[in-house]
Every structure is written in C-alpha cells, then in structure tokens.
C-alpha cells in the first residue's frame, strides 16, 4: 500500500458511518456497521455512527459493536429511540451534521470529512444517498450516483455490460405494466429462455424476492414474489456453473482498479440456490472458499473480467463482481455489487485477506481513497 497521507486537517478526519436504511437489507447493513466499528483505527479517525431507521430518519447511533451484530439469528434494527435525529447540511462547503431536538435550536454535531455509506439495496446502494452526499459536497466511500444506480438495476447493469462487450447471460425484462396487462405474452417471452429460470426483482439484493422456477406453472407466483420488492422484474435463463466472486478496489492516483484473488460460494443441496437464508442465517450449509480452486488461466480471466466490469459501470472505491464459471470454463458476469457484504466474515473482505490486505487495512484504504478523490464531477 502506498503511504500517501490524506490532506492533514488539524484534527483527525471525522468519518460518519451510515447504516440501516429503508431497504430489505437494513439488518445486514447494521451488521456491517458492527464490523466496521470494531475495525476502524480510532487513533487515525473520529467515528460518528449514524443509523437510518426503516422510515428513513437519520439518528445518532450507538458506537457499540454488540448493539449492531447479528446474534443467534436476531436481526438488529435502527429505531427512532436510538438517538437524536440528525440531518446533513446541504449548504455547499458546510459539511455539517446537525442535531434536531424538538423545541431546541439545531446544534452542530460536527463537521464530516468523509461519509462511509454501509448501505445495501434501494435508498442506499442505488445512487439516492450518493446523490444526497453529492449535494452536501462531502467526500464519501464507494461508487457515485450513476455507477450505484446501474449496479443496483439488474436490467441496466446488463445493458451497460453487454454494451462494453462483456459476457452476460440471456434474460428478459418484465416492465411494471407488462405483467399486469398481459401475463400470457410475458410467459411466452420468458419460456423461450428454457428452464430453469431465475426470477428476480430488478432492484433488490441479498437474494430477496428471487425464485428459481423449474416449471412454468410456478412462474406467476415467482413474478408476484419478485414484484413485492420491485414492480420491474428480470427473468434469466439458469446458468450451470460454479459461483465465483472477485473483490475490486479502486486504483490509487489514477491507476487501474485492483482485483483480489477470486473466492467461491458452494451451497449444499438443502438450498435451491444461494438464497437469503443461505447467505445470512444458515452458515452450516454454505462454504466460502478463498482463494477459489481454479486453474491459473481461469483465475486470471475472472480477475480481468472483474476489473473490466468495474470500469464499464465506472464504479469507484469498491465493488464485488460475481460470475459463473461454466463446466467448459466460460466466465459469465452475474452481477456487480457496488456495496457488497462488508462484515469481517463477508466474502469481499475475505478475498482481500487472502490477497494480503487485512480488514482494518481495507477500511483504512477505502477511507483514504474517498478522501483523495475530489467531490463534484470527476
Ligand atoms: N441466471 C442464474 N443462473 C443460475 N443461478 C442463478 C442465476 N441468477 C441467480 N442465481 C442464483 O441466485 C443467487 C442470487 O442472485 P443474484 O442475481 O446474485 O441476486 P442478489 O443481487 O440478490 O445477490 C445467485 O447467487 C445464484 O445462486
Ligand atoms: Mg448476488
């Protein structure tokens, strides 16, 4: 790692950790906050945890790893009782978090040097919060507005990747009104993809609302399940292949992005695919192996494709690129996640660990990248 120091203010840079939020991945985001709170270097940074409730209220949150961990399947949740409400000033150059207490003049909690949005899913990983941070003119970790939005939307993600000549699997999009207006026509269209199908909300994550369909009779229920998360649905041809992931980190000083050694997800037969339970609640039936046991040339192709995917959507900071490696060693991109699972046990940090960067070093590197890059158009 290069030793360039970020421009040194008289005090330590203050990092606001943003977590929770309005998406179905609220609890996972809180668990990520627990990981980062436990790992961030307190000698180097001041830390301000800011929780976002499911209703979208920002509150001062406990600086307490145990409060936000997932313990015995209990999912943590940010509530309005966690602390006073805060807002981020949108006045250019102010960069202040203001505390709002009913009946009192708003007080300033402090200037924010960098925001670390540990948010997954809609209203967090999709460019909306990034837009707010752009308006506030603060430095923040990770992808900007467009890359976040493209990474969130499986329809546009495929268009952008295919537009760059990158390999994506066959799919169909069911727009919000198409399914309700003519389900038969939709069924005919997706039937041409063959079986099995994977039916997904276009903009969700953590496998929420995703079903594997082995019989077209099950399609309506699968589409309805996806529509509970997003009126736009993506239906994909099932791909037979190993699930391989690769962690990408933005380049320093104009260098190209860096790709980790790939990892592999192996889910046993108790799950039809890598679903929500398998991801967070049923670790016994999932094996994350890192580095993945792949021939050297396949490893090299996965890493190269991961970097090109990151570049295609113009991601920044971090992204995890998930691919399928077919039995004849073809590599197909499944998706890019601009805010991947980021607990110390998640694949993203584990892949960097295997590549020689520890979790605390990774947190530090991401904050440095964010402080180094200019705010505004870049
Ligand atoms: N086209 C596909 N072929 C085979 N398996 C798939 C396909 N799409 C998704 N899956 C399975 O479903 C899981 C979740 O799908 P994914 O698109 O990664 O959604 P999410 O954004 O919620 O992680 C994948 O990790 C994989 O196990
Ligand atoms: Mg996925």
TrEMBL record:
Could you tell me what reaction this enzyme catalyses? 2 D-alanine + ATP = D-alanyl-D-alanine + ADP + phosphate + H(+)
Q: Which residues form the active site?
A: 25, 206, 346
Sites binding ATP sit at 154, 198-200, 206-207, 236-243, 334-335
Q: What is its EC number?
A: 6.3.2.4
Which PROSITE patterns does the UniProt entry name for this protein?
Answer: ATP_GRASP (PS50975), DALA_DALA_LIGASE_1 (PS00843), DALA_DALA_LIGASE_2 (PS00844)
UniProt keywords (A-Z) are: ATP-binding, Cell shape, Cell wall biogenesis/degradation, Cytoplasm, Ligase, Magnesium, Manganese, Metal-binding, Nucleotide-binding, Peptidoglycan synthesis
Q: Give a GO biological-process term.
A: cell wall organization
Q: In which pathway does it act?
A: Cell wall biogenesis; peptidoglycan biosynthesis
Functional note? Cell wall formation.
Q: What is this protein called?
A: D-alanine--D-alanine ligase
Gene source species: Isoptericola dokdonensis DS-3
């Amino acid at each position: 790692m290069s030793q360039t120091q970020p421009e040194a203010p008289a005090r330590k840079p203050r990092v606001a950790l943003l977590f929770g939020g309005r998406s179905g991945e609220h609890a996972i985001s809180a668990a990520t906050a627990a990981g980062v709170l436990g790992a961030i270097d307190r000698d180097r940074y001041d830390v301000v945890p800011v929780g976002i409730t499911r209703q979208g209220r920002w509150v001062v949150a406990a600086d307490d790893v145990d409060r936000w961990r997932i313990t015995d399947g209990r999912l943590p949740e940010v509530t309005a009782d966690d602390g006073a409400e805060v807002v981020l000033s949108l006045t250019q150059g102010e960069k202040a978090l203001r505390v709002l207490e009913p009946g009192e003049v708003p007080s300033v909690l402090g200037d924010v040097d960098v925001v670390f949005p540990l948010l997954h899913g809609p209203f967090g990983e999709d460019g909306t919060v990034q837009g707010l941070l752009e308006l506030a003119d603060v430095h923040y970790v990770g992808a900007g507005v467009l890359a976040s939005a493209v990474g969130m939307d499986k329809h546009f993600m495929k268009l952008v990747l295919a537009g760059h000549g990158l390999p994506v699997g066959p799919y169909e999009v069911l727009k919000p009104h198409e399914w309700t207006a003519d389900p038969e026509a939709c069924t005919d269209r997706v039937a041409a993809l063959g079986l099995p199908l994977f039916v997904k909300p276009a903009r969700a994550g953590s496998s929420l609302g995703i079903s594997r369909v082995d019989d077209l009779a099950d399609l309506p229920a699968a589409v309805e399940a996806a529509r509970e998360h997003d009126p736009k649905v993506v239906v994909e041809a099932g791909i037979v292949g190993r699930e391989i992931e690769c962690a990408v980190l933005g380049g320093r000083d104009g260098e190209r992005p860096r790709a980790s050694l790939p990892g592999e997800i192996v889910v046993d037969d108790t799950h039809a695919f890598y679903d929500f339970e398998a991801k967070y609640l049923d670790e016994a039936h999932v094996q994350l192996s890192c580095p993945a046991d792949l021939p050297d040339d396949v490893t090299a192709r996965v890493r190269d494709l991961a970097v090109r995917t990151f570049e295609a959507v113009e991601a920044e900071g971090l992204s995890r690129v998930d691919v399928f490696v077919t039995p004849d060693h073809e590599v197909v991109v499944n998706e890019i996640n601009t805010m991947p699972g980021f607990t110390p046990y998640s694949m993203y940090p584990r892949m960097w660990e295997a590549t020689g960067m520890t979790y605390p070093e990774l947190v530090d590197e991401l904050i440095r990248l964010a402080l180094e890059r200019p705010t505004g158009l870049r």
